[in-house]
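Today's session is about reading a structure prediction critically. Students often jump straight to the picture, but the first step is always the sequence itself: look for stretches that repeat, for charged clusters, for runs of hydrophobic residues. Only then move on to the predicted structure, which in these notes is written as discrete structure tokens rather than atom positions. Here is the chain we will use throughout the hour.
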Amino acid sequence: MKLIIFGATGMVGKQLVQQALFNGDHVRAFGRNVYTTDYLQTENLQLVQGALFDETEVFNAINGCDAVLSAIGGASDGTDKARTLGMKNIIKQMQKTGVKRIVGIGGLGVLNASENSLLVDQNDYPAKFKAVGLEHKKAFELLRESDLNWTFVCPSDIINEGPTGSFVTNADYPPEQNNYKINAGDLALFMLNELVKNEFVKHRVGISN
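Below is the predicted structure for this chain, in token form.
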């Protein structure tokens, strides 16, 4: 497949680039600092330096790809709108290019507490995670309202470790056996596998090691 990876210089983004190249995929790595990141140099890797809010740059990055992977990060205090405005622009440019498949990263708070409410909307949701949780919620709502074939992966703590291949998942709810952590490598592994298996199309996914 030909993939575009947004947030390619972050902890999960680097794992996505590395694993996708290992799988033989053609990868466009998009970010402000891609030329200063230590990627495996191969003819299957194209570095795309660009701004997430620039419509033309994001359109050109997506155009011609088979699928989009979004590992957008940023500050967690609510001041950084990359997760929402960035996702809004990605969705807009996907619709222009005709690319339909996206797997992105959200957060635990976007998962269901019950059939009609999210964890982030509960009164006992930790205050320090509320702002970023609401940003993830907005990104999820943008995906849900689109006509794209989306999957939104919603981890708790992401650990800067490689893949183990040992993790549990659950559609729309936290995993029943939830250790509230996932290796960045396993998160990337799941996202790439989901592009092939399409088991969680138009679903959120709880995941944990």
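Discussion point for the tutorial: Residues 2-208 form a domain with the Rossmann fold fold (CATH 3.40.50.720).
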